From TrEMBL:
Record-given protein name: Histone deacetylase
Biological process according to GO: epigenetic regulation of gene expression
Alphabetized UniProt keyword annotations: Chromatin regulator, Hydrolase, Metal-binding, Nucleus, Repressor, Transcription, Transcription regulation
Any Pfam family: Hist_deacetyl
Residue positions binding a divalent metal cation: D184, H186, D272
UniProt gene name: LOC106762009
Family note: Belongs to the histone deacetylase family. HD Type 1 subfamily.
Catalytic reaction list: N(6)-acetyl-L-lysyl-[histone] + H2O = L-lysyl-[histone] + acetate
Compositional bias segments (type: Polar residues): 483-493
Localization: Nucleus
SUPFAM superfamilies from the UniProt entry: Arginase/deacetylase (SSF52768)
Residue ranges, compositional bias (Acidic residues): 397-417
Source organism (scientific name): Vigna radiata var. radiata
Amino acid sequence: MDTGSNSLPSAPDGVKRKVCYFYDPEVGNYYYGQGHPMKPHRIRMTHALLAHYGLLQHMQVHKPFPARDRDLCRFHADDYVAFLRSITPETQQDHLRQLKRFNVGEDCPVFDGLYSFCQTYAGGSVGGAVKLNHDQCDIAVNWAGGLHHAKKCEASGFCYVNDIVLAILELLKQHERVLYVDIDIHHGDGVEEAFYTTDRVMTVSFHKFGDYFPGTGDVRDIGYGKGKYYSLNVPLDDGIDDESYHFLFKPIIGKVMEVFRPGAVVLQCGADSLSGDRLGCFNLSIRGHAECVKYMRSFNVPLLLLGGGGYTIRNVARCWCYETGVALGIEVDDKMPQHEYYEYFGPDYTLHVAPSNMENKNSRHLLEEIQSKLLENLSRLQHAPSVQFQERPPDSDLGEAEEDHDGDETWDPDSDMDVDVERELVPSKVKKEIVEPQLNGLFQDDQRRSGEHLRVSDTAVAETCMKALDISSQKADEDNVKVEQNTVNDLTK
């Protein structure tokens, strides 16, 4: 029986979308530790809502093929990946120097199954990119992904492996230009840093800026070398509401789409920018947050939707369920159906929650200044860069391999999804936390801590990305290369 992977027509553009959705039923079992605000259980809660709202039957549902060592090493350093693979809670005391070197231990703790968790969420994002590259869907969704802080050689901000960078590298095999948009409340520093010196990836991040983690993302950070003006940062203050957010988002992204003309878009939908988030200080409604998804969808460009932050987990599940409906072009009811996590959503048991009456510290004058500055930067890009290819690198096996497996390795989209859901959604190790505990001092630092200025000098990051792509299609003039390298070296001193 054909379940119809094509979505229903959406109201604004009336175009059906074929949506691929990646989900591993084990993802909710991973546990960062007591009191830690990052809870993978929110992914299982999201999936339960999708199942009981009947959205799964409108999508191709895939269990991600786990990313392998060599897949992760397309961006991350070999020794860092080897460390993540080998470290366990039982052995971590024997590796204190490495823990410090790779920034693992506090915000990014060692927990049972850490490496499997990384393989799972990275596999979903790269698998989604492979599906988009092969025109097997119009929109790919991996709510377990979007961990945008991870660096080439270190963990950061609850993120260990940067699945976004890996997915963009995969998309660049097929598309000359890829746009990355980040609506998490935190700056997308890891992704920006990875592509800071290239004109093939434009990064646009809307985030809280000031005395706030990770401390990067100034409006003046615009990229370097070939990448100059290809990094856009939209620094915001507390309490921004839907109207103010869209005042910036739509004109800026509209101009980006016009000037940059990406072949594919990656949208990181961090839900910590919602009103009432445990670590956040914005005041977006779920509809306001989802309007960004709706706007990106309207351009009819291959779209990868990823998760990210979000620490009031009942609202995270609400948001990503609603945004899956937006991707499909289906308006879901506000009244929530009964399901196994129904008690999380009391006392109203509705999908939407009203924003608070907190003060919006973003004045219209400030917003106009930011908008004007960024549109001016975009006006400096006369046309989209052209890229010559030698030979297209081979596709990653992720996503394609799943079609060769039988049984539980993947979910057949033509099967009875309700049966699959009942089988896969039995809670195991995850402890329900209906009343979320107060933050301890360690994670309150997330609100206060400011990081170092973005390291423009880390050219090794950009070199890793370019080597992974094999895109050195034009013969370089050695003298020019030496001059450019000397410039970079001078900058690092």
